[in-house]
Structure formats: C-alpha cells, structure tokens
Amino acid sequence: MPRPERYDSAAAAVADIPDGSSILVAGFHAGVPWNLMQALWEQGASDLVMISTTVNRPLRDEDGRVTIADLVLAGRVRKVIASFTAAPHPSQPNAAEDVFREGGADAELVPQGTVAERIRAGGAGIPAFYTPAGVGSAYAERREQREFDGRSYVLERGITADYAFVRAHQADEAGNLLYRRAARNFNPIMATAGRCTIAEVDEPFLEAGEIDPDQVHTPGVYVARLVHIAEGRINAPRRTRRSGRELDLDADDGAGGGS
Fold it and tell me: Which neighbouring-strand residues pair with 168?
C-alpha cells in the first residue's frame, strides 16, 4: 500500500487545490485544522463548496484564525453544507449570515446528527439512507419520504468531497492517525469521505507501528497527505469557567478524558 505524501508546510499541502473544489473541514472548536484553513486562505482558491458542522463566525481579524465564515465573507464560497450558519448566541453577530440572506452563497442546513451520518455513509460507500430526523418539518418537505413499519422517514444522500481537512494529534509514516480526546469529534468520519484527505499533525511523525493498533482512529489507507506543524502552530484557546485560565484545547493540557 502506498504511503501518504509528507509535506514540509500546510501551504505546500494545499497548493494544488483548484477553484470549484469541495472540502470537508473537521473539528468542533477542538480538533479544527486551523493551519490548513490558514493555508487555504493564503492559497486563494475560490468557488468552493465547504462542508462542516458549523460555518463559525469570522475570526481572521480577531485572532488570526481562518473560518469558513471568513471565506464566505471574502466571496470565495459558492455553497455551504452545515448544521449552523448563525452565531451560537445573539450577542455574537455573524456577518456571514448576511451573505446567505442576500443570496451571495447557498446554504444547505442539515440536522447535526444527519450531517454526521451523511458523511459517515459517504465514506462507507453508502449512497443514501432513510432517517426520521426532520419528519414533519419544512426541512422534510424538500426531500423524498417513505414509510417503514408505520413510521415516516426522510431520504438523505451520503456526502463525499474532493478534499478533507483533518487534525490529528499523532500520525505514523503509514498515515495512521490518532486524535486527542474531544478533538476527535468529526475528524474520523471526514477522513474517510474525502477523495484526498490532508491531515495536519501536532506531534512529530512516528515510525509505522509505533501507534498501538487499538489506538488508531483513522487507518492510513484513508490519508493522502500529511503535514507536521512544527513551528507557529495555530491553536484554539478557550477560557475555562472555573479558573478563567486560557487553555489550548488541542494541546496536552487542554482537554479532559481519555483518548
């Protein structure tokens, strides 16, 4: 099995992404491939279809991180498939929402569990499936419905994309990935659904076999490109409610629970 290609920088890893590409972006605050997103911003690709759980809010002018919302505001996104395009709270206005309202970009809003299952299905080669989520709502009116055992279900299509951006804590030379705690979230399913999956990795690459097989979250067969962010890594700080201390959610002191 061919091993994934290793790159010296995130910029090199995304350099050949053309206009019109579809891109899965993993993470849910923790586990976001911030460095690949920054590189995509600098690379300049446009007319993109971006698929994620959330558009987020514009952060580039606030702390330097690039979100899908930043790309939307820059006019570089044709369509978004996500669960959220609005800010999580009215106190955090999201200028990207105006772009969707005014028709500057299309937004396909999908229940969060459904978008996760659509991506998982796409990665597993399942073209479509039925789910009860959304039945009886305006969302379901736009989709084929069918009854099984007296209950109505909505037909959903699997999702795949030209590229998937994921963030791993560790990777070996064969491309096997280990995600760290809560940073795992959408990363494993998105890694399977990209025709070219690009993984940014926090720690230096390991030799093949150094990751315990029981700890491999994404087998290397799904990974096409690897980049270790050695210096200047972009992380997502968050203040804890109890201490007010800022933690790096993607680093060793920044999350709880087991891997």
Answer: 201
Which of these, 165, 238, 170, lies nearest to 207 by C-alpha position?
Answer: 170
Amino acid letter, residue 216 = V
200 sits in the region (left: phi over 0; alpha: psi -120 to 50; else beta) called: beta
d(CA 58, CA 56): 7
Query: Over the stretch 173-218, which tens digit does the pLDDT of each residue have?
Result: 999 999 999 999 999 999 999 999 999 999 999 999 999 999 999 9
R_g (Cα) of the chain, nearest Å: 18
- Tell me which H or E stretch contains 195: strand 194-201
Q: What is the pTM of this model?
A: 0.88
165 and 26 Cβ atoms separated by less than 8 Å: yes
3 state DSSP class of 28: strand
Q: Domains of the chain (ranges plus CATH)?
A: 5-248 (3.40.1080.10)
pLDDT at 63: 83
**Hey, what are 128's tokens?**
């479509």
